[in-house]
Amino acid sequence: MLDKFGDDFNIDPEVLQSWKNEFYATRIWAPLIGKPDILFDVNVPGHVGPCLDILRQVFVECFTQTAHKVNKDSPSQKLLFHKDIPRYRKLIGPFFKRVEPVNDQAFWSEIDELSNKQKAELKFSRQLILHQIYNSFIGKYRSEIIEDFEDMEESKDLQFAKKVEEFIDLMEECSNNS
């Protein structure tokens, strides 16, 4: 799309390359590298977040066309990957040449195929999910959960602790019958 736009309006090839770099690296991949939980069902531990942020910064830097000067006061991640970035920058131009354009029909066809495949493979059951939550959390911490609701002023008037206990009893009954 950007190549076609560049050809139609006689955009300088360097400007066009900057557009591609900005769009591809900064708008698509950098957020996913820094925060994979945006797209994937993963928990990113607190100590891993800063490491992912460093990788994200290095990735974006590889797509910039101007080299940033480093010195002894530069951040450690810049110093750590400084020697590798020029090598990665050389790979960017050939990468974009190998990317094949996709028309709308092919894109949506692929999306439909993936969606249908996912529907066929994934069987969502609310009851199964509820049992999994119960077995992994509620059943283990039953007494603590009920005590917390009994101690909370907001839930005393509603008799929430009693209702939760009835719910848990019902879940246990259903688990024992299955």
Map the helices and strands.
Elements: H1 2-8, H2 13-34, H3 49-63, H4 76-81, H5 85-98, H6 104-121, H7 126-138, H8 142-151, H9 153-156, H10 160-177
Could you walk me through the main structural features you see in this protein, from its secondary elements to its overall organization?
The chain is mainly alpha-helical and 178 residues long. It has two domains: 2-101, no CATH class; 126-177. Helices cover 71% and strands 0% of the residues. It has ten helices and no strands. It has helices spanning 2-8, 13-34, 49-63, 76-81, 85-98, 104-121, 126-138, 142-151, 153-156, 160-177. It is elongated and about 70 Å long.
Would you kindly provide a brief summary of this structure?
By secondary structure, the protein is mostly helical.
Could you tell me the radius of gyration in angstroms? 26 Å
Largest sheet: none
Shape: elongated
Number of domains: 2
Strand percentage, roughly?
under 5%
Span of the ends, CA to CA? 55 Å
Task: Give the fraction of residues assigned to helices.
Answer: over 70%
Succession of helices and strands: HHHHHHHHHH
Question: With helices defined by DSSP (H or I, 4 residues minimum), what is the helix count?
Answer: 10
Low-confidence stretches: none
